Amino acid sequence: xxxxxxxxxxxxxxxxxxxxxxxxxxxxxxxxxxxxxxxxxxxxxxxxxxxxxxxxxxxxxxxxxxxxxxxxxxxxxxxxxxxxxxxxxxxxxxxxxxxxxxxxxxxxxxxxxxxxxxxxxxxxxxxxxxxxxxxxxxxxxxxxxxxxxxxxxxxxxxxxxxxxxxxxxxxxxxxxxxxxxxxxxxxxxxxxxxxxxxxxxxxxxxxxxxxxxxxxxxxxxxxxxxxxxxxxxxxxxxxxxxxxxxxxxxxxxxxxxxxxxxxxxxxxxxxxxxxxxxxxxxxxxxxxxxxxxxxxxxxxxxxxxxxxxxxxxxxxxxxxxxxxxxxxxxxxxxxxxxxxxxxxxxxxxxxxxxxxxxxxxxxxxxxxxxxxxxxxxxxxxxxxxxxxxxxxxxxxxxxxxxxxxxxxxxxxxxxxxxxxxxxxxxxxxxxxxxxxxxxxxxxxxxxxxxxxxxxx
Amino acid sequence: xxxxxxxxxxxxxxxxxxxxxxxxxxxxxxxxxxxxxxxxxxxxxxxxxxxxxxxxxxxxxxxxxxxxxxxxxxxxxxxxxxxxxxxxxxxxxxxxxxxxxxxxxxxxxxxxxxxxxxxxxxxxxxxxxxxxxxxxxxxxxxxxxxxxxxxxxxxxxxxxxxxxxxxxxxxxxxxxxxxxxxxxxxxxxxxxxxxxxxxxxxxxxxxxxxxxxxxxxxxxxxxxxxxxxxxxxxxxxxxxxxxxxxxxxxxxxxxxxxxxxxxxxxxxxxxxxxxxxxxxxxxxxxxxxxxxxxxxxxxxxxxxxxxxxxxxxxxxxxxxxxxxxxxxxxxxxxxxxxxxxxxxxxxxxxxxxxxxxxxxxxxxxxxxxxxxxxxxxxxxxxxxxxxxxxxxxxxxxxxxxxxxxxxxxxxxxxxxxxxxxxxxxxxxxxxxxxxxxxxxxxxxxxxxxxxxxxxxxxxxxxxxxxxxxxxxxxxxxx
Lengths: 456, 478
What we know:
The complex is a heterodimer of chains A (about 450) and B (about 475). Chain A is of the alpha+beta class and about 450 residues long. Chain A has 11 helices and 19 strands. In chain A, the strands form 3 sheets. Chain A has a 6-stranded antiparallel sheet. In chain A, strands 10-9-8-11-18-17 form a 6-stranded mixed sheet, covered by helices on one side. Chain A is globular, with a radius of gyration of 23 Å. With about 475 residues, chain B is α+β, with helices and mostly antiparallel strands. Chain B has 2 domains: about 1-225, PmbA/TldD fold; about 235-475, no CATH class. Chain B has 10 helices and 23 strands. Chain B has helices at about 1-15, 75-90, 120-140, 205-210, 210-225, 240-255, 260, 330-340, 370-375, 425-430; strands at about 20-40, 40-60, 60-70, 105-110, 145-160, 165-180, 185-190, 195-200, 235-240, 290-295, 315-320, 325, 345, 355, 360-365, 380-390, 400-410, 415-420, 420-425, 435, 440-450, 455-465, 465-475. The radius of gyration of chain B is 23 Å and the shape is globular. At the A-B interface, strand 1, strand 2, strand 3, helix 2 and helix 4 of A face strand 1, strand 2, strand 3, helix 2 and helix 3 of B. Strand 3 of chain A pairs parallel with strand 2 of chain B, so a sheet runs across the interface.
C-alpha cells in the first residue's frame, strides 16, 4: 500500500465513510548548482516528501500537511486533520471531489535528467563559464524531479513523474549584462557552452549604453521578455477566480487580442514539463485560452469552476482556493517558419532578427524585471528592462541603451492591430517563481509605454 | 530535544569524516497554520508540520549543502556525506571561500509570546475573520478578504567549531482587505497593511490590531476611491505613511546593503547593488535625518531572533548614520571575502534551504516630528499610504511604488482623496530629499521577501514612521 493509500484508508476510518477525503503525496528531488563571479559559490540538493490530507465533513474543511512519512507521523496527520475538521468554520464553497477519470498519456520521464549528479551539473556550468570567456559569469544549472500520487474517497487515483533541467545565466562586463536561458525535460537538450556564448555576445553588444528619453516605442520583445508577458497574462487574467470576482480583464468570446495570437496551456507543451493532473486529481488536458485573438477559456479549480458553473480545467494548486487557479504551461503559438539559426550580434537568433528587420524605429528588449501589477482590471504592470536593450533604426540594431522603466497594460499591448509580428520559434523557459513554464516566441509590438529612464 | 541534536551532530561528524574542513547542521521543526476568509466565509484553512535537517560542508574552498527530512542517525550521516560530495563537485569551478572567526556559541533563545497562537480555538479565529469580512461586504466591498498566518519554529544548530544552539521562534499576524471593482479599474483598501501586520509575538498581536473595528472604514474607503480623482502627475512634496516607508526601506536600503548582492553573488537573479564597498563609511545615502539600524534584537519585530542560521548571536549595528552609509547585512563567508569583521544576518526559509544573507530588522530611528506636524508644515504636496505595488531595478536604484490611497495636501491640511497614487525615483536622490521624519515608529513585518535560488521566502522587520520627501515625481500611469 502506498503512503497516499495508507493515509486515505486511515482518514476514512477516523472520520467515517461519508466524508470527502483526498490525499496528495509529492516526493521532490531538487538540485541546483549556482555560480557567480565565474565560480560555483552555492551548490545544493534536497529531498522532500510532502503529504497533504484534506477532509471535508459536515460542511467543514481542513487541510493538513507533513513532511514526515513514518507511520507515527502519518497517524498524527490523520488525527490532527480529523480534529481540525470538527471545529473549523463552515466552508460553503466546497465543490466536492473529482470522480474517477482517465489521464492523458504521458511520455516516460527521463530519470537521468531528474537525478543528474552534482558532477554533471558542474561540468555544464564549467562549459557555460568557459564560453563566457573573459567576462564574468553568473547563473544556475538546476535539475528537478517530482513524483506525485493522488487518491480520494470518490475512487480517483493518479500518479505521475515530472522532470526538468534548466540553465539560466548571464555574462557581465563593467557596463552591461547579457542573458541566455533554456529549460527542457531532457538534460541532453541543454548546451551550457552555447548559452554562455549567447549571453556573452549580448553583454559585449550592450557595453557603454546611452540613455534615451522615455516614451512610447515600438518594441521587439525577445522570447525571454515575452515569457514574462505570458506568465502575467496567465496569473492575473486567465485565472478563473479573478474572472469570477471581476478583477480580470478577460471577456470570454470577445476579440481581445490580435488575430495572430493563439495561447494555450498544455502540460505536454514541447520540452516544457507539466503534470497531467492537478492537486485535486482532476486531469489537465491542453486548454486553448485564446484562439486567433478571441478569448476562449480560463483556468479553474473545482471551487472557482463551481462558482462559474463550468467543469474544473484541472488547475488546482496548493493555494488556488485563495489566489485562484492559474495556467501552468503556457505556449504562445509561433508563426510557421524555418528553424532559427545563430546570428552575429545581440539578437537571440534569426527569428528575432527577422522581426527586428520590420522595425523603423524602436527597441529590442532581452528581459523584463520585477514586473508588478498596478491594477489587475486593465492589467497595468510596471517593471524594468534588463540584460540588454538596443535601439533599432530602419530595421538595424544600431546601439545599446540603458535600462528603462515601463508602465504598460499587457493585454492592451497585444490588442487587435497592436501585434505587428510573432517569431517563428518558441523556446521553453522555466519560471523563476515556481514549477511553471512558458514557450514564448519573440513579439513585435506597435507600442510599449516606457515611463522612466536610468536617471529616474 | 536530544534526538534532533543527535541528528545534527551525526551529520556534522560524518561530513568531517568525509573530508569537510568545516560543517554545520540545522534541524528545524516547524508548525504552521493559516486561514483565509472571503465575503463572510472561510475559504481555506491550512495546517502543517515540516521537519528536516540541512547540512553545510566546506571542502577545500568549495561549499556543498544537502537537506533531508529523515532524522534517523543513518540518514543524518548520509546527509553529511552527500553535502561533502556536492562540495567536491563545486571544486570543478572553485572560488575563494573563507569564514571570519567566531566564538562557538552555546545557548538557547525563545521569542516572547503571551498567547500561543496555535492554542487559540479555530472557531474563535474563524469568527474573527468571517465577522470582519462580512462587515466589509455589508459596507459595500465587492471582495472582502481576511487572513492570518502562524509559524511556530524550533531549531537546533551545531557546527564543527562547537556551536550548540536551540531556538523557539513564534511568529504570527494577519489583516483584512476590501476591493471595489469598477468598469475599468479596481480600488483596494487594507488594514493594517496590504499583507497584514506580523511579528515575533503571540496571538496578542492579532488581538491588538483590532481587525473588526476597522472593517467598515476600509470598505467605505475602497468604494470612495472609485469616485476619487486621479493623483496629480508631476513633481511635488511627498508625505509617506509609515507602512509604505517600511517597504521603501526594505527595497531601496535593506536589499541594497546585503553584502552578497554587493559582492555579486546574486547578480544573475535578485541582482547586485549600486553600493561600492570602497565607499563604506563615506557615501552619503540620505539626508541627516536618515539613521538606519540593523537590529535582530528588536523586541517583537518579525526579523528578530537569538542567533542567525550560522550561529552568530543577534546584534545591532548601524547601516546608515546621519545620512552616511556605515554598515551591511553580512554572513561569516561574505564578511571574510569583503574584509569585514561582523556577521549575523544569514538565515534560511526552512531546513531544506541554504542559509543566505537576509535582512533581519532594518529600520529607521525616530525623527523629531509627528505626522500632524509634517502635514501642517506642507503647503503643497501629496500624502500616500499603504503599499499596493512595488518594483525596483536590479541595482536597487530605480524604484516605482503604488499606494492604495492618497490625499492632496494644501496649506498644511489634508484635502481631496486621490486614487492611483504612484511615485518613482532613484534611491539616494530620494533619501537625500527627506526633510521631515516622524517619531511615530511602528515595526512593520514583511512576511514575503523572495530571494535566492532555489527561491526562499524570508521574514523581515522594518521599523518606520511617516516622513516627507521633496521634489518627487508622482502620478505615473500606464
